[in-house]
Write a structure and sequence with these properties.
Blueprint lengths: L8 E2 L4 H4 L2 E4 L5 H14 L1 H5 L9 E4 L6 H8 L1 H11 L12 H6 L2 E10 L6 E4 L6 E8 L7 E2 L10 E2 L7 E5 L6 E3 L7 E10 H6 L4 H4 L3 E2 L18
Antiparallel strand pairs: 1-2, 2-9, 3-4, 3-12, 4-11, 5-10, 6-9, 6-11, 7-8, 7-10
Length: 238
């Protein structure tokens, strides 16, 4: 995606099985990381206290105003990214469900950013496809070593997955489709903290029962949020 003004490259996965997954090294600048650390120190008590073991699957703190340059660029260029996906791997993408091409050019896509933590004892969060999201970016924050997200791909029933090695501030990006099935599990040694960045279309947000989750800065722990079990994968929701 050479139209993006930063380093981004394909993950070494067969795209006929895992779709298009991209890596973005050094997603945040040092200054941006300092801002995130400051937010965590002042607003995320679980980061120091530890996430209670009965939390499942995560605690999350929405900060849609995080001043991250790459996030803003991706938001501005999201239609080009969607076109790139469609041109390089035709699939039933979530962003295709917002309507025809003409509508997509005029509809509003919103940027949603949250700091998210999973307790170290967390059982596996089952395979899902981020069905309500048009695009997902995950940026590891801590610890230095942890368990990366597992990508299961279109043949998820084979239980063969690929991973991008966990590295702080090394992001990965994918768009929601039947190829984007993935799962994650708690780190047995420490809480697992990431930046979870998404692009949603506004119609989807306003149609949800709690749009404030997307539009305000809130704390929540809710296992149903953004959850899409694979039993519904064949009926990919609009």
């Amino acid at each position: 995606m050479d139209f993006l003004p930063f380093e981004i490259y394909s993950a070494p996965f067969p795209k006929d099985k895992y779709g298009l997954v991209y890596e973005i090294p050094e997603y945040c600048s040092e200054q941006e990381l300092e801002v995130i650390r400051g937010i965590i120190d002042h607003n995320v008590p679980y980061y120091k206290q530890g996430i209670p073991s009965d939390v499942y699957p995560n605690v999350a703190y929405i900060h849609n105003n995080l001043p991250l340059e790459k996030s803003f660029i991706i938001h501005e260029q999201c239609r080009k990214i969607f076109n790139h996906y469609e041109n390089n791997l035709p699939a039933d993408y979530r962003f295709s469900r917002v309507g025809d091409m003409q509508y997509r050019e005029s509809c509003e896509f919103i940027l949603h950013q949250r700091i998210q933590g999973n307790p170290k004892s967390m059982k596996e969060y089952p395979i899902h496809i981020d069905a309500g999201k048009c695009m997902t970016l995950l940026v590891p924050l801590s610890p230095v070593q942890s368990v990366p997200t597992r990508f299961h791909g279109i043949d998820y029933e084979e239980h063969i997955f690929k991973t991008i090695p966990w590295k702080i501030n090394h992001a990965y990006l994918f768009c929601s489709s039947p190829y984007s099935s993935h799962s994650y599990v708690g780190d047995g040694n420490a809480d697992r903290w990431i930046l979870n960045i998404n692009i949603f279309d506004m119609k989807y947000v306003l149609d949800t029962d709690k749009p404030e989750r997307f539009l305000e800065q809130v704390e929540y722990s809710d296992p149903s949020y953004g959850y899409q079990m694979l039993k519904n994968l064949k009926n990919f929701p609009s």
